[in-house]
Write a structure and sequence with these properties.
This protein is of the alpha/beta class and about 170 residues long. The protein is about 35% helix and about 25% strand. The chain has a single domain (about 20-170), classed as HUPs (Rossmann fold, 3-Layer(aba) Sandwich). It has helices spanning about 35-50, 70-90, 105-115, 135-145; strands at about 5-10, 10-15, 25-30, 55-60, 95-100, 120, 150. It has a 5-stranded parallel beta sheet, with helices on both faces. It has a two-stranded antiparallel ribbon with strand order 1-2. Helix 3 crosses helix 4 (about 135-145). The chain is globular. The N and C termini lie far apart (about 40 Å).
Length: about 170
């Protein structure tokens, strides 16, 4: 972090230079758990990407566990559908499947690695994976990120069962 001198009440102090970001995002990060809530966040990110001519970077974090390869394969298949749907709308999209037990930490790593300008995240994801996974992840990210964050408030899921609907199937 670079520092620059700043004068305050006649005394010199050192203030950290804030991570700079453009007011117009070029790259939008969307953490996805494939829940209806993350689908709503994808719809909002799509509107923003179209408006700002931005790229979308999708990320899914899988906790280290048995059945890891099957979960990664399923996520990649689901992302392929999303990327194709975004491309059809003229939006460049890329994705990654991260394997990490610390979901928020993994998202922070992606923000830095991919030079993300804006993060869009929903308040509630799948329950049953971890209790209120994206609720707690969203709270952590609100406190920790140094870039603009759009928090999409969604209803708390009624159960841990993923309900397939025609609308949801547009993306995955």
């Amino acid at each position: 972090m670079r520092c620059r001198p700043r004068v305050w009440h006649g005394e010199e102090s050192v203030m950290p230079e804030v991570y700079s970001f453009s007011t117009i995002p070029a790259k939008i990060l969307l953490p996805i758990d494939f829940s209806p809530s993350s689908h709503e966040a994808l719809e909002q990110a799509t509107v923003l990407a179209q408006h700002f001519h931005a790229e979308i970077y999708l990320v899914h974090v899988i906790p280290e566990s048995a059945g890891l390869e099957a979960a990664k394969k399923q996520a990649e298949q689901d992302f392929a559908v999303s990327v194709a749907a975004l491309a059809a709308k003229g939006i460049k999209a890329t994705f990654s499947v991260e394997v990490e037990n610390d979901t928020a930490g993994s998202v922070l790593d992606v923000i830095e690695r991919e030079h993300i300008d804006l993060i869009v995240i929903s308040t509630h994801g799948l329950t049953g994976w971890h209790p209120l996974v994206f609720g707690s992840i969203a709270e952590k990210l609100v406190r920790l990120v140094h870039i603009p964050l759009l928090l999409i408030r969604t209803e708390k899921p009624e159960s841990s069962v993923k309900v397939a609907s025609g609308r949801l199937m547009e993306w995955w």
